[in-house]
Design brief:
18% of the residues lie in helices and 35% in strands. It contains two helices and nine strands, in the order E-H-E-E-E-E-H-E-E-E-E. The two termini are 22 Å apart.
């Protein structure tokens, strides 16, 4: 078996699709329905699924989920430049961490979900 899709449930599918496409640079995407967006990648697809209304956050506050037990990683040959670009755009980002040649940094999307930029 192999991973074919990663699905992230989101409250505002339109703004989150825009964030991952335009801000993070996850690439082209398509709406398979008004509740489901697919980003084609070189590996597994990243999918956004509209959270059913009864489970959505209604107060509009999304603190960073720093204790989340999940995150997905975007590859970049230059994660430090990506970090700078995202900070400039106002994305909440942690400071980059280096382990030898490995460079990574975590960030938070508008709904508080953790993602990572890495050169791995």
């Amino acid at each position: 078996m192999r991973i074919s899709r990663i699905i992230l449930f989101v409250d505002d599918i339109v703004s989150m699709a825009r964030f991952y496409s335009e801000t993070v640079g996850a690439g082209e995407h398509r709406f398979e329905s008004e509740m489901f967006v697919v980003f084609e990648t070189d590996g597994a697809e990243l999918c956004l699924h509209q959270t059913p209304e009864q489970y959505r956050n209604t107060n509009g506050e999304y603190p960073p989920r720093e204790d989340s037990n999940q995150k997905f990683v975007f590859h970049s040959d230059e994660p430090l430049k990506e970090h700078e670009r995202l900070v400039f755009l106002g994305v909440s980002m942690r400071e980059p961490v280096k382990y030898g040649d490995l460079i990574l940094c975590d960030g938070f999307d508008p709904e508080g979900n953790v993602f990572q930029i890495s050169n791995r």
